[in-house]
Amino acid sequence: MDKILKIGIVGCGAIGKDHCRRIMETVPGATVVAVSDYVAAAADETAAKYGIRSYGSDCKGMIADPEVEAVVITSIDPTHHDYVMETLKYEKWCFCEKPLSQNAKDCEEIMARELEIGKKLVQVGFMRRYDRGYAEMKRIIDSGEIGAPLLIKACHRNVSQGPGFKTENGITNVAIHELDICRWLLGDEYEDAQCVRVRQSSNSNKGYDNPQVVLLRTKKGCFIDVEVQVADGYGYDIQCEVVCENGTVKLPDPYAVVRRSRPDPAKDPGETMPIMTDWKERFIEAYDIELINWVASVNAGAITGPSAWDGYVACVAGDACNASRGTSQFMKVETIEKPELYK
Amino acid sequence: MDKILKIGIVGCGAIGKDHCRRIMETVPGATVVAVSDYVAAAADETAAKYGIRSYGSDCKGMIADPEVEAVVITSIDPTHHDYVMETLKYEKWCFCEKPLSQNAKDCEEIMARELEIGKKLVQVGFMRRYDRGYAEMKRIIDSGEIGAPLLIKACHRNVSQGPGFKTENGITNVAIHELDICRWLLGDEYEDAQCVRVRQSSNSNKGYDNPQVVLLRTKKGCFIDVEVQVADGYGYDIQCEVVCENGTVKLPDPYAVVRRSRPDPAKDPGETMPIMTDWKERFIEAYDIELINWVASVNAGAITGPSAWDGYVACVAGDACNASRGTSQFMKVETIEKPELYK
Amino acid sequence: MDKILKIGIVGCGAIGKDHCRRIMETVPGATVVAVSDYVAAAADETAAKYGIRSYGSDCKGMIADPEVEAVVITSIDPTHHDYVMETLKYEKWCFCEKPLSQNAKDCEEIMARELEIGKKLVQVGFMRRYDRGYAEMKRIIDSGEIGAPLLIKACHRNVSQGPGFKTENGITNVAIHELDICRWLLGDEYEDAQCVRVRQSSNSNKGYDNPQVVLLRTKKGCFIDVEVQVADGYGYDIQCEVVCENGTVKLPDPYAVVRRSRPDPAKDPGETMPIMTDWKERFIEAYDIELINWVASVNAGAITGPSAWDGYVACVAGDACNASRGTSQFMKVETIEKPELYK
Amino acid sequence: MDKILKIGIVGCGAIGKDHCRRIMETVPGATVVAVSDYVAAAADETAAKYGIRSYGSDCKGMIADPEVEAVVITSIDPTHHDYVMETLKYEKWCFCEKPLSQNAKDCEEIMARELEIGKKLVQVGFMRRYDRGYAEMKRIIDSGEIGAPLLIKACHRNVSQGPGFKTENGITNVAIHELDICRWLLGDEYEDAQCVRVRQSSNSNKGYDNPQVVLLRTKKGCFIDVEVQVADGYGYDIQCEVVCENGTVKLPDPYAVVRRSRPDPAKDPGETMPIMTDWKERFIEAYDIELINWVASVNAGAITGPSAWDGYVACVAGDACNASRGTSQFMKVETIEKPELYK
Q1: Which of D74, D90, D105, D288 is the most exposed place for a label (fewest CB within 10 A)?
Q2: ipTM tops 0.85
């Protein structure tokens, strides 16, 4: 417990503030020493709360600060690439929220820099790998107890999206979690992908497709079907079933009290288990475990979580999905050769 | 399939009409040849529907009819004993809806008559023994796979009761099903019983206790807890769990579609499985199987279902429950020695 | 109850014998008067059991028998078309087990004959429409309570197949049930279909593909994903979830006792709900309801169940699936214009 | 976040070490400054791990240390009372694992001391109140959405017990959790209690009763049935259902992956959800929340968790259960008048 990792945070929005609290209160072996944000006041407010240093909007200055050993990037998506590159300039540890970059080329640049340094320094915030449900599914699949995995059926249903949301974001910001978790569960890489045009919900008339269906095939031939409802659904509902040769495993619903009642005298009685509406609650424990693991691995000298390669593959697969839209055809998921560093 | 059992029905109310339809349409090896009812018009109506003979209100005349080989008694409860005795006068087969009689003495008289005849002719309508759920629980318990049974936790929840319902009826008309099914599941007899006074539902202000809790102990020491809600509950909900030495078995909820939705925008979303409100639907298949089995056993010459002894024990146990009310004490369930005929 | 429909059965194999028993014992308003089978002895045996007439292998003679008002066709698949046409020659009612024919052209011939007669006389044995689970899903979807249907996710998992089974049979004999039930649930017709090549189970090395994934799109754009495991699965497991605009509905698992135990001291304890292995048990109640409904509708003068059109569409959709195999492309499901008679 | 509570721990066994790690790594606003243990080496080892001070076996010296602001008591049960009293001597905050004392009189002494000081300083380790399942049940009950609570059905099943375990411990060490949680859920106090002698598991021949059934009645008349299996069960299984006037709520099973498979070719397939065997895992999150809440409340100046009164009532109720064993009678749960301080 000697080592206390000194962290600087870029971006003090909702998730940035949350990670700051998490590191300060829950994660052993780490502390936040400085924060910064495009909006200086946001950084100042967070800094004041914990009595730490604010760099205001001077994010690059904060990254350069010699006291800062590791950088957590929770700024808006389009800025991720630049802050990761800035962090790598100083060969510091970096935890970057998903997505790693806006396009494959930018991810490749990050990997090229890591290869130059000769060390994995970047971890991408695919927190679902740390959810106890997915982790147990992975354990069972890897154990071989129910044979090799063949198929995945998943769905990702949301209640709403913020302004400016576009059809493509349904893949790059929403389904991206499935793009990562499916290949992780299978221990396999994608061969091709298809985004299928389906009947649209009449609730959704905001200019983006909803729902969409994403189909993926892996190198080993596994087939993945992901339903993506970006908005207007009944709740925040994440489901995932992996069909193996001799059985299936399924992500559990969250721990929730079961009620038997007649909620309304005019309606029929039933047994009801609540469904969440707020995505932030669903994987709240996974975020804790994720950062605890990240800090422990950094303090031990080698990151073990999702790497720049994982961020890159999710990006390339997402691009293939978006490119296939409207073609009724599978599109190749073409990545560069996997560098030795990421194997 | 040669043998067609010729049946006469006493009582053409809801359950009588239902059994008539069942025998005419669903049960192989039997037909209804005559019906009768305290209200002659009810008998006439049912007879007309199937083109069979109506004895009007001459129930005894119908029982005496030489064509009638077996009598189904679905008249009002207080008349059961007399019609059973009348049927036994002619040594005919008899299927009597529960309860067999209004008191233990009357049941003993029926058994005495059967002993005199030297043959079990009476079956009591404890249809739950024919439910696939209870039957499978019995099979597992008897298999010994999960060890000897130790405890039963049951509940019987109703939506409403007709006029004239009294506290005692909560035992003799409602919990009587549990009084039968529990000893059948356990293969054991009752030692003592206690009806515990509990906090009353403020929904129930009709002059009878609701809910009640019935506790029973068997000769082997098994302990049974039955929650009895006779009215004002959220639905018709029957639950039963048997705890054995190495595991438990539980009655399943009925086959019902599961929905995930937000039924009302002002309420939270949830996964909902409907609960029945009408008791007639819950064991509808069990009634079919019950009568199919009864007819087959009669046609084979020996009844295999719940006997007069079973009807008697349920009656004695119910009396003990009612006698214990308010005493906070267990009351002995004192039966006569079990005659060889019923072993 | 006056009308008793006189039925002749072609084919006394497993399902033929079962339907015979069902009609004789469970279905009101009907009786079997004659049976026949390619293997004369099979017909003779069934006839003897019920004391009815055997036509031995003279199936056409039986169909022609003036006493026979309706024909149940449960012979081997390739003979269905000819016996249906033979039945229609006499303008008799016909219940034909699925599939209606081996190809689309033969189905079209049957419809042409019905159009000539000007009446629907043929019902196809898609019994799942009579399962209480699917029926309730249909009711909820049609009620609009959870909005328009958008997606279906289904799976059909089997334990084994008989000799001579081929990849194409995975569609025409197995997934054919989903091909029917999905368009019925949606109230929609298919636009195109694709059978996706997926990772194969190493358990299956008998010369046919296993599993397969069938994708379908409807005229309204609904998207359907059907997993088809024809053999070597853990059990007989049928699942179906319909995703609507405001919620989802799901086929329940069969009524089964839940056990909590440690089945083996060397293994971990768990809550277990059994899964069936025998397909005949899964929809056993649906078969009863199906034939009860068929007889009632025939006795009322107009069939209400799955028509020759439904048998035809399943056949055309199955052909499109099989034709698409290996192309990674959706193939049009091209039917003739739907005749007025079937609307 | 300014305040860092300085804690000393008495008892460095399994739970003591666990709380030490928890406070050092997970709980914000607190740190462990010193440890002690009856076995000096245990204290030294824990102290060395975190670089803190060891008082060896000088527990009283540690409690007296002016740096120590709060004491966590995780020593063996019979020592709890003395260490609590020692802590109160210095008017320091005290977190004491259950049970608060070995008998009612000792608990009364602790309360008398608190009353003298005029402040609640002691919190008892009833961690289940911090479990999200129980907490949500409490929230629903208190909301009145499903009416007033009437009944509780609970069970507590264990896999094994250490040497020296006695029948009475089934109440005071095992069911004590239910003795606390039930009155907390109901917001009610106990009227009387009965420990019912039931059929014994043949697995249990170690000199103590197993299972036992505990019945409790509250002042408002609520009825509680707790099954207590102290050993030889299939797993560690905690269940709790509260029946209210208009519905029921039930403790969920822990978040666990559901598997559908045939675990053994010789056995039937099934859907399986694992059950825990280790009690330490079941409420692991509740322990975290408990200590986080305790520290926050202490730092805010007033404890909000289970008080000495709660520890006392559990103790008195347990004594009544043990006294009633073998009598088949309810025994009064007689407490002193509830002091104003605890209302």
Answers
A1: D105
A2: yes
